[in-house]
Amino acid sequence: MRSSLIEKAVPLPFVARSREAMGQKAAEDIAYELRRRLKVQQGVRMIFAAAPSQSEMLAALIRMPSVDWSRVTAFHMDEYLGLTPDAPQRFGLWLRRAIFDRLPFAAVHLLEPGTDPEATAAEYADKLTESPIDIVCCGIGSNGHLAFNDPPADLNDPADVKIVELDIACRQQQVDDRCFERFDDVPTHALTLTIPRLLASDRIFCCVPGAFKKTAVRRTLQDPISGLLPATALRTHSNWSLYLDEDAAADLASPEAR
Protein backbone atom coordinates (compact mmCIF):
# COMPACT_ATOMS: atom_id res chain seq x y z
CA MET A 1 0.00 0.00 0.00
CA ARG A 2 1.36 3.41 -0.99
CA SER A 3 1.77 6.16 1.58
CA SER A 4 -0.49 9.19 1.27
CA LEU A 5 1.32 12.52 1.26
CA ILE A 6 -0.06 13.64 4.61
CA GLU A 7 2.51 14.75 7.16
CA LYS A 8 2.77 12.48 10.18
CA ALA A 9 4.50 13.21 13.47
CA VAL A 10 8.21 13.90 12.87
CA PRO A 11 10.40 11.63 15.00
CA LEU A 12 13.04 13.14 17.25
CA PRO A 13 16.37 12.36 15.54
CA PHE A 14 18.94 10.30 17.38
CA VAL A 15 22.09 12.42 17.41
CA ALA A 16 25.32 10.56 18.13
CA ARG A 17 28.71 11.97 19.04
CA SER A 18 30.38 10.12 16.15
CA ARG A 19 29.60 8.29 12.93
CA GLU A 20 30.48 5.03 14.63
CA ALA A 21 28.06 5.67 17.50
CA MET A 22 25.37 6.63 15.00
CA GLY A 23 25.88 3.40 13.06
CA GLN A 24 25.91 1.31 16.22
CA LYS A 25 22.61 2.71 17.49
CA ALA A 26 20.91 2.34 14.11
CA ALA A 27 22.17 -1.24 13.77
CA GLU A 28 20.90 -2.11 17.24
CA ASP A 29 17.45 -0.77 16.39
CA ILE A 30 17.37 -2.50 12.99
CA ALA A 31 18.43 -5.81 14.54
CA TYR A 32 15.74 -5.46 17.21
CA GLU A 33 13.16 -4.87 14.48
CA LEU A 34 14.38 -7.90 12.53
CA ARG A 35 14.19 -10.16 15.58
CA ARG A 36 10.72 -8.86 16.44
CA ARG A 37 9.40 -9.49 12.96
CA LEU A 38 11.04 -12.90 12.58
CA LYS A 39 9.21 -14.07 15.70
CA VAL A 40 5.87 -13.62 13.97
CA GLN A 41 6.71 -13.73 10.23
CA GLN A 42 8.10 -16.44 8.01
CA GLY A 43 10.60 -14.00 6.55
CA VAL A 44 11.58 -10.35 6.21
CA ARG A 45 12.14 -8.37 3.00
CA MET A 46 14.59 -5.44 3.18
CA ILE A 47 15.86 -2.71 0.86
CA PHE A 48 19.38 -1.33 1.40
CA ALA A 49 21.04 1.88 0.24
CA ALA A 50 24.61 1.74 -1.03
CA ALA A 51 26.63 4.75 0.11
CA PRO A 52 29.49 5.65 2.44
CA SER A 53 26.87 7.14 4.78
CA GLN A 54 25.67 3.60 5.46
CA SER A 55 29.10 2.07 6.13
CA GLU A 56 29.15 2.38 9.91
CA MET A 57 25.60 1.07 10.27
CA LEU A 58 26.23 -1.92 7.99
CA ALA A 59 29.50 -2.78 9.73
CA ALA A 60 27.68 -2.81 13.06
CA LEU A 61 24.65 -4.66 11.68
CA ILE A 62 26.66 -7.69 10.59
CA ARG A 63 27.90 -8.02 14.18
CA MET A 64 24.43 -8.01 15.72
CA PRO A 65 23.63 -11.31 17.48
CA SER A 66 20.60 -13.56 17.17
CA VAL A 67 19.34 -12.40 13.76
CA ASP A 68 18.30 -15.29 11.49
CA TRP A 69 19.58 -13.86 8.21
CA SER A 70 18.63 -17.08 6.42
CA ARG A 71 15.05 -15.77 6.52
CA VAL A 72 15.86 -12.27 5.20
CA THR A 73 15.57 -11.33 1.53
CA ALA A 74 17.58 -8.31 0.37
CA PHE A 75 17.10 -5.73 -2.38
CA HIS A 76 18.90 -2.48 -3.12
CA MET A 77 17.48 0.81 -4.22
CA ASP A 78 19.52 2.13 -7.14
CA GLU A 79 22.28 1.39 -9.64
CA TYR A 80 24.31 3.34 -12.18
CA LEU A 81 23.92 2.91 -15.90
CA GLY A 82 26.94 2.78 -18.17
CA LEU A 83 29.49 1.17 -15.85
CA THR A 84 31.14 -2.13 -16.65
CA PRO A 85 29.80 -5.12 -14.70
CA ASP A 86 32.98 -5.29 -12.61
CA ALA A 87 33.29 -1.54 -11.90
CA PRO A 88 33.97 -1.14 -8.16
CA GLN A 89 31.56 1.80 -7.99
CA ARG A 90 28.60 -0.41 -8.86
CA PHE A 91 26.18 -0.32 -5.95
CA GLY A 92 25.44 -4.02 -6.14
CA LEU A 93 29.14 -4.81 -5.79
CA TRP A 94 29.53 -2.25 -2.99
CA LEU A 95 26.70 -3.90 -1.03
CA ARG A 96 28.10 -7.35 -1.69
CA ARG A 97 31.38 -6.27 -0.12
CA ALA A 98 29.70 -4.42 2.75
CA ILE A 99 27.02 -6.93 3.75
CA PHE A 100 25.47 -9.24 1.14
CA ASP A 101 28.46 -11.61 0.91
CA ARG A 102 29.07 -11.49 4.64
CA LEU A 103 25.74 -12.84 5.87
CA PRO A 104 23.68 -15.91 4.87
CA PHE A 105 20.68 -14.12 3.33
CA ALA A 106 17.75 -16.18 2.08
CA ALA A 107 18.09 -14.33 -1.23
CA VAL A 108 19.80 -11.22 -2.59
CA HIS A 109 18.18 -9.55 -5.59
CA LEU A 110 20.74 -7.31 -7.29
CA LEU A 111 19.58 -4.50 -9.54
CA GLU A 112 21.62 -5.40 -12.63
CA PRO A 113 20.91 -2.99 -15.53
CA GLY A 114 22.10 -5.37 -18.26
CA THR A 115 21.60 -4.41 -21.88
CA ASP A 116 17.93 -3.42 -21.48
CA PRO A 117 17.49 -1.22 -18.39
CA GLU A 118 13.81 -0.64 -19.10
CA ALA A 119 13.17 -4.38 -18.97
CA THR A 120 15.32 -4.66 -15.86
CA ALA A 121 13.24 -1.95 -14.16
CA ALA A 122 10.03 -3.84 -14.92
CA GLU A 123 11.45 -7.16 -13.72
CA TYR A 124 12.79 -5.65 -10.51
CA ALA A 125 9.47 -3.94 -9.85
CA ASP A 126 7.76 -7.32 -10.17
CA LYS A 127 10.11 -8.84 -7.58
CA LEU A 128 9.49 -5.97 -5.21
CA THR A 129 5.73 -6.30 -5.44
CA GLU A 130 5.59 -10.07 -4.89
CA SER A 131 5.22 -9.44 -1.14
CA PRO A 132 5.30 -6.36 1.10
CA ILE A 133 8.63 -4.73 1.92
CA ASP A 134 9.18 -4.73 5.67
CA ILE A 135 12.25 -2.53 6.16
CA VAL A 136 14.15 0.13 4.22
CA CYS A 137 17.64 1.29 5.26
CA CYS A 138 18.36 4.57 3.52
CA GLY A 139 20.25 7.85 3.60
CA ILE A 140 19.61 11.37 2.36
CA GLY A 141 21.61 13.01 -0.42
CA SER A 142 23.26 16.40 -0.09
CA ASN A 143 20.64 17.70 -2.53
CA GLY A 144 17.87 16.02 -0.54
CA HIS A 145 17.50 13.03 -2.82
CA LEU A 146 16.16 9.65 -1.73
CA ALA A 147 17.75 6.80 -3.67
CA PHE A 148 18.45 8.50 -7.01
CA ASN A 149 15.28 10.60 -7.00
CA ASP A 150 16.87 14.02 -7.45
CA PRO A 151 14.85 17.23 -7.19
CA PRO A 152 12.38 17.97 -8.59
CA ALA A 153 11.09 14.45 -7.86
CA ASP A 154 7.59 13.09 -8.39
CA LEU A 155 6.30 12.18 -4.93
CA ASN A 156 3.33 10.45 -6.57
CA ASP A 157 5.30 8.60 -9.23
CA PRO A 158 3.20 5.71 -10.61
CA ALA A 159 6.34 3.68 -11.37
CA ASP A 160 8.17 1.47 -8.89
CA VAL A 161 11.54 1.41 -10.65
CA LYS A 162 12.66 3.72 -13.44
CA ILE A 163 15.57 5.27 -15.35
CA VAL A 164 16.57 8.75 -14.17
CA GLU A 165 19.10 11.40 -15.16
CA LEU A 166 21.33 12.42 -12.27
CA ASP A 167 21.61 16.12 -11.53
CA ILE A 168 24.88 17.99 -11.05
CA ALA A 169 24.69 18.06 -7.25
CA CYS A 170 24.06 14.33 -7.08
CA ARG A 171 26.99 13.57 -9.37
CA GLN A 172 29.27 15.92 -7.42
CA GLN A 173 28.33 14.11 -4.19
CA GLN A 174 29.75 10.90 -5.66
CA VAL A 175 33.09 12.69 -6.08
CA ASP A 176 32.88 14.25 -2.61
CA ASP A 177 32.21 10.78 -1.19
CA ARG A 178 35.38 9.61 -3.02
CA CYS A 179 33.45 7.05 -5.02
CA PHE A 180 34.79 8.59 -8.25
CA GLU A 181 37.99 10.53 -8.87
CA ARG A 182 36.54 13.07 -11.30
CA PHE A 183 33.10 14.55 -11.94
CA ASP A 184 33.20 13.42 -15.56
CA ASP A 185 33.68 9.82 -14.41
CA VAL A 186 30.29 9.79 -12.67
CA PRO A 187 27.55 8.26 -14.84
CA THR A 188 24.78 10.58 -15.98
CA HIS A 189 21.93 8.07 -15.63
CA ALA A 190 20.82 5.38 -13.23
CA LEU A 191 18.03 3.01 -12.28
CA THR A 192 16.22 3.87 -9.06
CA LEU A 193 13.32 2.81 -6.92
CA THR A 194 10.84 5.66 -6.79
CA ILE A 195 9.81 7.53 -3.68
CA PRO A 196 6.33 5.94 -3.49
CA ARG A 197 7.97 2.50 -3.76
CA LEU A 198 10.27 3.30 -0.82
CA LEU A 199 7.47 4.80 1.26
CA ALA A 200 5.35 1.70 0.71
CA SER A 201 7.65 -0.15 3.12
CA ASP A 202 6.47 -0.72 6.68
CA ARG A 203 9.55 0.62 8.55
CA ILE A 204 12.30 3.04 7.49
CA PHE A 205 15.69 3.57 9.15
CA CYS A 206 17.60 6.60 7.81
CA CYS A 207 21.30 7.22 8.61
CA VAL A 208 22.78 10.60 7.67
CA PRO A 209 26.29 11.51 8.90
CA GLY A 210 28.58 14.32 7.86
CA ALA A 211 28.72 18.13 7.83
CA PHE A 212 27.96 18.40 4.12
CA LYS A 213 24.53 16.83 4.80
CA LYS A 214 23.54 19.29 7.55
CA THR A 215 21.54 21.60 5.26
CA ALA A 216 19.70 18.68 3.69
CA VAL A 217 18.89 17.33 7.16
CA ARG A 218 17.51 20.66 8.37
CA ARG A 219 15.45 21.11 5.21
CA THR A 220 14.16 17.53 5.38
CA LEU A 221 12.71 18.24 8.82
CA GLN A 222 11.58 21.83 8.27
CA ASP A 223 10.80 22.54 4.60
CA PRO A 224 7.33 22.05 3.11
CA ILE A 225 6.83 18.52 1.79
CA SER A 226 7.72 18.79 -1.86
CA GLY A 227 9.56 17.13 -4.70
CA LEU A 228 11.92 20.12 -4.58
CA LEU A 229 13.46 18.44 -1.51
CA PRO A 230 12.53 14.77 -2.01
CA ALA A 231 13.57 13.64 1.48
CA THR A 232 10.74 15.72 2.97
CA ALA A 233 8.50 12.86 1.80
CA LEU A 234 9.84 10.82 4.73
CA ARG A 235 7.60 12.95 6.94
CA THR A 236 4.58 11.35 5.31
CA HIS A 237 5.62 7.91 6.58
CA SER A 238 4.16 6.79 9.90
CA ASN A 239 7.12 4.71 11.08
CA TRP A 240 10.58 6.09 10.32
CA SER A 241 13.66 6.87 12.39
CA LEU A 242 16.48 9.32 11.69
CA TYR A 243 20.07 8.80 12.92
CA LEU A 244 22.62 11.63 12.72
CA ASP A 245 26.09 12.44 13.94
CA GLU A 246 26.84 15.83 15.47
CA ASP A 247 28.08 17.25 12.17
CA ALA A 248 24.89 16.37 10.30
CA ALA A 249 22.76 17.76 13.14
CA ALA A 250 24.66 21.06 13.34
CA ASP A 251 21.89 23.14 11.73
CA LEU A 252 19.16 21.79 14.01
CA ALA A 253 18.05 23.72 17.08
CA SER A 254 19.93 22.50 20.16
CA PRO A 255 20.69 18.93 19.02
CA GLU A 256 21.61 16.78 21.99
CA ALA A 257 24.22 14.15 21.19
CA ARG A 258 23.92 10.76 22.87
UniProtKB/TrEMBL annotation:
Natural source organism: Edaphobacter modestus
GO MF, one annotated term: glucosamine-6-phosphate deaminase activity
GO cellular component, one term: cytoplasm
InterPro entries: Glc/Gal-6P_isomerase, Glucosamine6P_isomerase, NagB/RpiA_transferase-like
Protein name as it appears in the record: Glucosamine-6-phosphate deaminase
Domain named Glucosamine/galactosamine-6-phosphate isomerase: residues: 18-236
GO terms classed as biological process: carbohydrate metabolic process; glucosamine catabolic process; N-acetylglucosamine catabolic process; N-acetylneuraminate catabolic process
